[in-house]
Fold this sequence. Notes:
Helices cover 40% and strands 24% of the residues. The chain is built from 14 helices and 14 strands. It has helices spanning 10-20, 60-72, 91-101, 118-124, 161-167, 170-177, 194-205, 228-242, 253-263, 272-282, 321-334, 339-356, 362-370, 372-377; strands at 29-34, 37-50, 53-56, 81-89, 105-110, 128-131, 136-143, 146-152, 182-186, 215-219, 246-252, 287-291, 295-300, 303-308. The chain is globular, with a radius of gyration of 20 Å.
Amino acid sequence: MSVTHPDVTTEAAVRACQRQLPASVDGGDVVFGFDGMIDAVQEMVDTRHGPESYTPIRTLDSLADRFRDSADENSSLAVEWVRNGTRTGGHTSHLARFFGGIGYDPAMIGTFGRPIRDVFAEEFGAYEMASLGEPGETHAVEFDDGKCMFIEPGSYLRFDWETVVETIPLDELAAHVDGTELLGIGYWTVMPRLPSVLSGLREDLWPRLSDPPERILFDPGDIRQLTAEQVERGIGPLEGLAAVADFTLSANRVETLALADRLTTAEPDRSFAEAAAVVYDNLDVTRFVGHNVDFSLALSEAGTARVDVPKVPDPALTTSAGDHFNAGFALGLLHGLDDGAALTLGNAVANRFVRTGSPPSFEEITATVNEYDDLLSD
Length: 378
């Protein structure tokens, strides 16, 4: 699918978002699956000064230096870390939290524990929840130039469509999905057998729905963990589901480059934008969306939109920034924004989240969109 339409640039996209964004949202039904995690946000200690005082390791390079020095000396390495918070995480939790916070009614299908763990019940007890098994646990270590995540997998690691419908009967699953406006799915990399789930949704679930979701958002996660053969086997199921709904595939820069390399011959000098075009041209999806710290882009039959991302010099939290970008972009699609305007909205939601560490209200999102030019110039 070659894109031949004119490009949409940042200025045009921002103006379009400011025009097209509604004054308020009325909410609606959305559904997310199929993961579930408990995230511990950590900070690694460089120098301990006292029981309550320490200097953190600021950069990934500094941590890498410690690993290299330890390896060169053939010695073990011990690094202290400090937990700065615990919260529910993963695609399902992050997007349900955002949409629930702005007035939507989310349904959640994922790994929340059987019985559902208190940490999920306390936060999401007002929503429809169906648990498939035990959650994963992630230690997300934040640095000034990125993050490193250590993951203990949950039940999702072993899921395929057969285990899903054995755990949640198909009629119950249909009740959660029917009548929703959006189905969000993540992540392929924590669910290696996710293609069988995609096939099951298309072949078994969709025929049972009287009012299926018109839009699907799919976040594959860190595609580097999948082989080219795994990606190849997943293309058919992915495109099958894309045939029944407006299907957005969203990935960050590293994931986009890795996905392009698995779809075609790897090219070491391929740019992020070139990789995004490769992915879109080799997959039959409605649109491909890529997000990066510098700019985000969307490729579809409407053309290519590229929108610069405002910098955040002192981020409060970067873990799940990509999920919040996805949430903002999906919100734009739900309200009929064009791709460039939806990219702007995704960037604005992620920007506000990274600055504050909390999912923004709709009023805060609107304010961020209105000040987008100022944020770019900071």
